[in-house]
Amino acid sequence: MLIKMTTLRLRLVIGFMLVSVPAMLGSAYIAAQLISDAFEDNVEQWLGETSRFFSLDIAEAQQEAQRVASVVGRRLEQTTDDQKMQRAAEGEFAVLSTVGYDLIAIYRPNGEMLFKTRDFTSIGPLPTETGQGLFRIEADGKRWIMAGAVQSVDLNGQQTNVLVGTWLDEAHLGGIKVVTSLDVRLFADFDGQLQPVVQTHPDRRAAIPKAIRARLAAGEERIFEPAADGGNYRAVYSGFRGIDGGLAGVSFIGLRREAGFFEQLGQESLFLGIFVLGSVISILVGLLMSAVLVRPLRALTRGVRAIAAGDFDQRVPASGGREIAELATGFNGMAEQLGKLQALEQELRRRDRLSALGQAAMVIAHEVRNPLGIIKTSTEVVRNRAKLGDSESKMLGYVIDEVRRIETLIRGFLDFAQPKAPVMTAFPLRNVIDRVAAIAEPELATRKLSLLVEDKTDNAMIKGDADQLHQACLNLVLNAMDAMPEGGVILATVTGDRETVSLTIHDEGDGVPEEIRAEIFNPFFTTKAKGTGLGLAKVQSVAEAHGGRASCESPDGQGAAFTMTLPRVESGAAP
Question: Which residues cross the membrane (predicted)?
Answer without folding.
Answer: 12-32, 270-294
